[in-house]
Specification:
With 724 residues, the protein is mainly β. It is 8% helix and 40% strand.
């Protein structure tokens, strides 16, 4: 039934209303019916959806292209329609403006918007890529040309559901103890990273190695629709010490994976690897889904060990803050899942920039940077610039701040060492080695974390989708003494943690017996001991040192991997870079590779991030792709059967070059472009596989006198990374 407001201002509906498969193409008609006021000549309606809902961006210029939008009316008037990103108030950033001219819309007359109009050859409108029970269009009306829009009640809504199964993931704990139960998760996802909720297949599992493997789980696992694409087993018991992985395969679909490594110990280790995502948002701020759904996903779908909800402070109402506090209390359960209360202090870069605030306790007040998008609340608690927040938290050991990149990138001219032991160097926004270098150049003594900064309700397993987020979400591994909030917080404050690009790579680094994150004095040369257990083959490991007076971290040791192996005919071409440090920094690398003589026997994708990227054309002489990077690597691996004089022509807008096939060896060749760390790397791959486990000891014989910061960078053959 129409509300009193809708009787005067009108109402809207959408057809069809059936559930929509994530990322599919279709056609939807939104029909607005004018209320008693009608709409005056030069009046307008406005259709908006939330920032994190990645409908394909509507366009009105190419009828044959995707996301083609048209508008019509049965009134004696004409319409002008345009899509504007950030055309309305947060979080309803996506906006379609429909302006009325050369007439008016009378009561009862209609405006019909056709999203994905296929009459002229368009494939339709691309649906959002993340599942969402209530995908809403908010409709606003300006009937009198005042440019004061009134929101209609009862917004049109559709449900976004997951698609067909596309991948399997198995999650094991990184540490287990013989004779003690551990938890295992199997997750089946669609191509956009949503749990494939309708999956009803059968998965066969096999432990590697099988000798002495954990017990308690059958080899055949049948999924039903009630599982929602996820199965959890809590009664698995390791039998002997060693490193185990679990392989899973659906023979019917051909989907297959192998889990992250699990180290089974004969007794409890001094530190356990616990995986968390300290940064993401829900509908209490700029994201979608409730904060309760947020923590439930992190625990029961992503299978991480700890999480924090980090809404932009100026979006969070007092009621929203209470809901976040309640959820943090409800979901915190030592030995199973740990939550941290927090928020994102969101001042402009000139005032400090974005910082995640992590509390040890549950009952903290929120000290916002401003009330820019909150209409009520106590402004006396606001702190701006961030130095005022430092002052408010001075002397406390139960709160920490983490500068990060994303929206208003953190300004490292502001720094309080007692509150900021860490910086975030990776999230769904991208990889930011430049931020790491800037922090070290300023003399900051910091550790590194990675997060998702998820906005779509998928913390801990956050896929980028089809919007401005460029890469899969990161994870932070805390080396904690216990599985409790206090122990994880202590590990973070002690910098006894490391960052990964989302994979559970095991990394143990010490220096003369001191743990990761420690600060100490030596009278002898530092000796780095490193042990790595990867989730894929390990392509490179660098030990880097930053000393006072250096302009950048220096590689003091690169561990030789497959150095005595001959080169293959497979050539890896990888590109990376950022346009700038401010938001929306992705570089578009759409391009091609052409061979002048011989043939390209095969071409496979390397590290592309979404279904919208990748190889779109291939032949014996040419490969064409779509790609964008945000500090991460994308690329192709081509097997070439060609004479040495044959040339490869690489062509993209950022960088183009020619190189002779005979000039390419296993030593990387770099071509550098404009922007931040923008480059293309060309090398032959070795004929032997990369190792998944490495261990080495290396002395830095002549370090500079003074303070030296060391860290280890691991790069796997699938492009995933870890930073100690």
């Amino acid at each position: 039934m129409n509300s009193e407001r809708n009787l005067w201002y009108g109402c809207a509906k959408v057809t069809p209303m059936e559930p929509v498969v994530a990322g599919n193409y279709g056609t939807w008609q939104l029909t607005y019916t004018a209320g008693k006021y009608g709409i005056d000549n030069s009046g307008a309606i406005l259709i908006c959806w939330r920032f994190a809902i990645d409908w394909g961006r509507p366009q009105t210029t190419d009828p044959s292209a995707e996301n083609y939008l048209t508008a019509s009316t049965d009134a004696d008037a004409r319409l002008d329609v345009a899509y504007v990103f950030k055309g309305h108030r947060r979080p309803w950033y996506h906006a379609v403006y429909v302006n009325v001219y050369d007439g008016e819309i009378r009561p009862g007359e209609h405006i019909v918007l056709t999203f994905g109009d296929t009459r002229f050859g368009s494939v339709g409108q691309r649906a959002p890529t993340a599942v969402n029970k209530r995908c809403e269009w908010h409709v606003f009306v300006d009937p009198f040309c005042t440019r004061r829009f009134v929101q209609l009640d009862d917004p049109p809504t559709v449900e976004i559901v997951s698609g067909e199964p596309s991948s399997i993931t198995v999650v094991l704990p990184s540490d287990a103890v013989c004779g003690e139960r551990m938890r295992i998760m199997l997750r089946v996802e669609d191509k956009w990273g949503n749990p494939a909720s309708s999956y009803c297949g059968t998965v066969r599992t096999q432990w590697e190695p099988s000798d002495g493997a954990p017990e308690g789980m059958g080899q055949v696992i049948a999924f039903s629709e009630s599982d929602g694409g996820v199965k959890i087993f809590d009664n698995i018991t390791p039998q002997r010490a060693g490193i185990f992985r679990l392989r899973a395969r659906d023979a019917e679909s051909g989907l297959e994976c192998i889990s992250n490594p699990c180290v089974c110990h004969s007794k409890r280790p001094a530190f356990i690897h616990l995986w968390g995502d300290l940064h993401g948002q829900s509908e209490e701020a700029l994201g979608i889904g409730s904060v309760h759904d947020y923590f439930r996903y992190a625990r029961d779908v992503a299978g991480i060990d700890f999480a924090s909800n980090q809404g932009n402070d100026f979006d969070i109402s007092d009621a929203g803050w209470r809901r976040i506090q309640d959820a943090v209390r409800k979901f915190n359960e030592p030995q199973r899942f740990v939550t941290f209360l927090g928020y994102e202090w969101s001042g402009n870069t000139s005032g400090g920039g974005d910082h995640n605030v992590i509390f040890l306790r549950d009952d903290e007040p929120i000290r916002r940077s401003s009330h820019a998008n909150v209409e009520s609340g106590d402004t006396s608690m606001d702190c701006y610039p961030i130095s005022e927040l430092y002052r408010a938290f001075a002397g406390r050991d139960d709160v920490l701040l983490i500068p990060h990149i994303g929206g208003r990138f953190a300004n490292l001219e502001f720094h309080e060492p007692s509150l900021e032991p860490l910086i975030e160097i990776y999230s769904c926004w991208g990889l930011f080695e430049w931020f790491l270098k800037d922090a070290l150049l300023r003399g900051m003594r910091i550790g590194f974390v990675a997060t998702s900064d998820d906005h779509k309700g998928r913390p801990g397993a956050s896929h980028p989708g089809a919007h401005i987020f460029g890469v899969y979400g990161g994870l932070t591994c805390a080396l904690a003494k216990e599985f409790t909030r206090e122990a994880i917080f202590e590990a973070l404050c002690a910098r006894r943690c490391y960052a990964t690009t989302g994979e559970r790579i095991l990394l143990h680094v010490t220096c003369n017996g001191h743990q990761m994150g420690e600060e100490f004095e030596l009278t002898s040369a530092p000796t780095i001991q490193c042990c790595i257990v990867g989730t894929a083959g390990i392509e490179s490991v660098d030990v880097l040192r930053f000393a006072q007076g250096d302009e950048r971290p220096r590689v003091v040791y690169s561990h030789p991997i497959n150095a005595d192996v001959s080169a293959s005919n497979c050539i890896k071409i990888a590109w990376t870079g950022l346009r700038r440090v401010a938001r929306y920094f992705q570089i578009v690398w759409d391009g091609s590779l052409t061979l002048t003589d011989g043939r390209i026997a095969s071409a496979r994708e390397y590290a592309f991030d979404t279904p919208l990227e990748g190889i779109i054309e291939r032949s014996e002489r040419r490969v064409v792709w779509r790609s964008q990077t945000a500090g991460d690597e994308d690329g192709i691996i081509v097997e070439v059967d060609a004479p040495a004089h044959a040339r490869l022509h690489f062509e993209t807008q950022p960088i183009s070059f020619d190189i002779a096939v005979g000039d390419i060896s296993m030593t990387p060749i770099e071509f550098v472009g404009d922007g931040i760390d923008t480059r293309v790397t060309v090398r032959r791959l070795p004929a032997a596989p990369f190792p998944t486990e490495l261990e080495f000891t290396r002395m830095d014989a002549k370090p500079p006198i003074g303070i030296n910061a060391y860290f280890v960078r691991v790069v796997q053959q699938d492009s995933n990374r870890a930073y100690s």
